[in-house]
Design goal:
It is a single chain. By secondary structure, the chain is of the alpha/beta class. The protein is 33% helix and 20% strand. It has a six-stranded mixed β-sheet, sandwiched between helices. A six-stranded parallel β-sheet has the order 12-11-13-14-10-15, with helices on both faces. Helix 6 links the parallel strand 8 and strand 9. The two termini are 37 Å apart.
Length: 636
């Protein structure tokens, strides 16, 4: 995988394009090819106003042959950098990159921490990352994930505040807010700093070899991202390891600021971080857990999934047994002393239950204290991370509205931060959108024709054997892969020797569900470790063992509880074997949410197969390419 941008030209060529009035048309064309979907008018405004300002300065500085990459996609996500200038370090010929972050701001004030600023005088204004922190994060992603950059280039950062004077931004100067940064690599310029801006560009950029360096950079291989579980112990026990970009950084810094404010006696506040699959909610959670505990702040991670919690514990326990105690469950705080914990990080908060009373039946009219109230009371700073479209089980009630309502009733303010950018699924929001449209979740349009993407592979298999062969080949290449299915087959307990019964039967193809056991036996991993244990491949996972996890390639078997008939989906209770779901009032929604979760576990690709021929044919009609395999002519 190489780097991509919306448009690439020299500063001279861009100046000519701007003069001819063609810049916006070229950028729209690049956007449609690389990103697709609706274009934000604010983004267009930035293109119209900011890009000419930087191009003009390059020409005035005598740098017309410098290469300019507009809207460069970051290596690990769908976040895009406004501009990257490429040339040589003057006098050396070494590759020089300048990451430019353009801001339309006319005014800004300090936020609750040096790393945060606010753009409104309202007391409820949502803080944003300081632009110097933001552009530095972009630099680090280039250095960390493109070996060529780390080994061969100098990377500099500029924040272009061309709409604001230095007087209007004096309050957020790094020296004024106490922001620590590398002054030799990062600079911020306002509208009255044009000469300083030009001098800074001349100091780090020469047009020598610019075209060669740009081609080399765009063709340079990008390292694949590692999964959360592969690095969680290092993140929790040793140091920050995951990159945080844009709203991820906003959320992370806001929580840290809220902790400091709480220590000073500020009113209690709950923080709600909302995002879809792959937006990095769990990454934020473990990064916060690590940094807070390393600074002597008692932070605890809580979740509603046994598999997710036990896997986190297992990975961290190998490095630090004491740190592994930081992972708990939502129902662990029924009798907690209020504010006994500094920070309670509630991950996967869509899995919250109405109450923590396990004995209470779903339809029992008796009400205990709401579980979300227990969690808010237990910590000085409660943090909730959730995705409302991951409600997959009867009795799960976690939602944005629930948390707002309960907190408001308790007199607790809620700060909500929405995550927009994708870090899973190849950093492709297009794929997640396509899945949601396919399943009729939150979009006006139904299933759309599949358009191949450079950073994410999608296939349809005509047999489960074809799917398994493809995924096994990926395993052989050193990638991780798993198959998961809708809960449409019976699920037997392991036999006495640990052997698993091959319950999932499709034609003459048979495989077992993942083990129900809680301990490894004869090489068969327990249910909680199916997604991460090397022996998990070959067993079929379900929503309860797959939710919250990620692997490189996801195989998804659609059972007959969701089939396509005519021009729409039909949800069939009789085909579903999950007693927690098939009796639920919103059965159809829960089943579609289940397949959304399963289909978005893959970081690099996915393979779909439906046990229902008509549904599988619908996948093919959408233009999804077939995987080749021994059974590609069909098993029926």
């Amino acid at each position: 995988m190489a780097s991509r941008c919306l448009y690439h030209a020299t500063a001279d060529e861009l100046a000519a394009l701007i003069a001819a009035g063609g810049l916006l048309a070229e950028l729209r064309r690049g956007y449609d090819e690389l990103i697709g979907g609706k274009l934000n008018p604010q983004e267009v405004g930035s293109w119209r106003n900011s890009i000419p300002a930087v191009v003009g300065l390059l020409l005035e500085a005598g740098l017309g042959e410098v290469q300019v990459l507009i809207e460069l996609k970051t290596p690990i996500s769908d976040v895009r950098m406004d501009m990257v200038l490429i040339g040589s370090v003057p006098g050396t010929g070494q590759m020089s990159l300048v990451v430019v972050e353009n801001k339309q701001w006319q005014w800004a004030a300090p936020g609750p921490a040096p790393e945060l600023v606010v753009l409104s005088r309202s007391p409820n204004a949502r803080p944003h990352s300081h632009p110097i922190r933001q552009v530095w994060d972009y630099r680090q992603v280039l250095v960390d994930y493109i070996p060529l950059v780390r080994q061969s280039a100098k990377v500099y950062c500029i924040v272009n505040m061309h709409n604001a004077t230095s007087e209007n931004l004096a309050a957020i100067k790094p020296t004024a807010v106490g922001l620590e940064y590398d002054t030799s690599s990062v600079r911020m310029f306002c509208s009255d700093h044009r000469d300083h801006f030009k001098n800074a560009l001349r100091a780090v950029l020469s047009p020598d070899m610019a075209a060669d360096h740009a081609q080399e950079f765009l063709e340079a291989p990008v390292l694949p991202t590692e999964s959360l579980m592969a690095l969680v112990s290092e993140s929790v026990c040793e140091r920050s390891v995951f990159p945080l970009l844009d709203e991820q950084r906003d959320a992370y810094e806001y929580v840290r600021a809220a902790v400091n404010a709480s220590k000073r006696g500020a009113p209690k506040e709950a923080i709600l971080i909302v995002g879809g699959p792959g937006t990095g909610k769990s990454v934020i959670a473990v990064e916060l857990l690590g940094v807070l505990n390393r600074h002597g702040i008692r932070a605890v991670h809580a979740a509603g999934s046994k598999s997710f919690t036990l896997t986190l514990r297992d990975n961290v326990e190998r490095v630090n047994r004491r740190a592994a105690r930081s992972f708990s469950y939502f129902n662990s705080y029924t009798h907690a002393t209020p504010h006994d914990i500094d920070v309670l990080i509630c991950d996967e908060a869509h899995r919250l239950r109405e109450t923590s009373d396990r004995r209470r039946h779903f339809d029992d009219p008796r009400q205990g204290k709401p579980q979300v109230q227990e969690l808010i009371e237990a910590a000085a700073v409660p943090v909730f991370l959730l995705d409302e479209h991951q409600l997959v089980r009867r009795g799960e009630v976690g939602s944005v509205r629930l948390i707002h309502d309960v907190a408001t009733d308790m007199g607790v303010k809620v700060q909500q931060i929405d995550l927009r950018h994708r870090f899973r699924c190849g950093g492709c929001p297009e794929y997640v959108t396509w899945v949601e449209q396919l399943l009729g979740l939150g979009w006006e349009h139904g299933p759309q024709r599949w358009r191949p993407l450079e950073t994410f592979e999608l296939y349809v298999a005509r047999t489960p054997a074809d799917m398994e062969d493809f995924l096994r080949a990926k395993q052989g290449e050193g990638r991780t892969a798993r198959m998961a299915a809708g809960f449409c087959w019976p699920w037997s307990d392991p036999q006495g020797d640990g052997t698993l019964v091959e319950d999932v039967q499709i034609g003459d193809w048979r495989r077992p569900w993942n083990s129900r056991a809680e301990r490894e036996k004869n090489g068969v991993p327990p249910s909680s470790l199916w997604a991460t244990h090397p022996a998990g491949f070959g067993q079929i996972g379900c929503i309860y063992t797959a939710q919250g996890f990620e692997y490189d390639y996801a195989g998804v078997i659609f059972g007959e509880d969701l089939v396509w008939r005519g021009d729409g989906w039909q949800a069939r209770r009789q085909a579903n074997k999950d007693s927690q779901v098939n009796g639920a009032p919103r059965f159809g929604e829960l089943v579609r949410n289940t397949y959304r979760v399963l289909a978005t576990r893959g970081m690099s690709g996915a393979v779909l197969f439906s046990n229902d021929p008509e549904t599988n044919h619908m996948f093919e009609r959408l233009g999804i390419p077939l995987v080749s395999g021994r059974g590609s002519r069909g098993w029926r």
